[in-house]
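== Protein entry: sequence and backbone fold ==
=== Local backbone shapes as whole numbers ===
==== Amino acids and backbone structure tokens ====
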Amino acid sequence: MAFRTFAVLCGLGCFGVGAAALGQSLATIKINEVMASNQSVAGPDGSTSDWVEFHNSGATAVNLAGARLTDNPATPGRWVFPANVSVPANGFLVVALDSSRPPSLTAELNLNAGFSLKSVGDAIFLYGSGTGGLVDAVDFGFQITDMALGRIPNGSANLRLCNPTRGASNSEAALGATIGNVKANEWMAAPAEGEDWVEIYNIGEPFEISRLKLVDASNNQKSFPNCLLDTNGTYSIDFSNWLNNGGDRITLQEGDLLIDCVSYGAGPACEFQYSNKVGAQ
């Protein structure tokens, strides 16, 4: 798709604008949308690479020259934004994450950081220029193909499963109700090695599981990471060896709302129990 006017181009990031017209603080910049499992959503050059989108919530364009982008905080300067790249006021900038082609060294329409993200789980970090500190970061688990992880509303703290909207306001994907669709499916209270764990299973529509938590009979709690759980998908989480070998109760909750409960051994009974799967002790 060709961009024919500067007005359209500026909606996706400004190039060649004088630094004097730009705000230098990165306080209004957020990693707004991440696409880490792209197979069919094409960019301006027709490629289907992963991408990251930045949003500027401020009233002044922000110059990103010298800012750094990485998937590993041990190497914050994995890619450095070239000169004359900015995020317009209340606008967006998209950077491709394509390890199959060289990173961008100068401002161009299809900026590329030169590295890719892992669809099974990864993280991306934005640092200031030079020795500047962390500006923003997003970490995530398994990603659904051709779906994005985005902030709803733009620039907020709320990460949700989104329809891909490269360079535009985020659009939250319709998700199935979790009650009755998600089960505490399997658990291991006495592993031969490592921590005990609990597995959840989704029989419904895809959804973002960071809003869920596990609670045992002693009120030990474990929240889930930013992760998209697909239909018929499972996710296992370490439970810090809190489960009682002789018996316990495991509840799956969304806030204070009880979604599922299982009890094993001498553990206290559940108020209700949706699960019909066989747990492992």
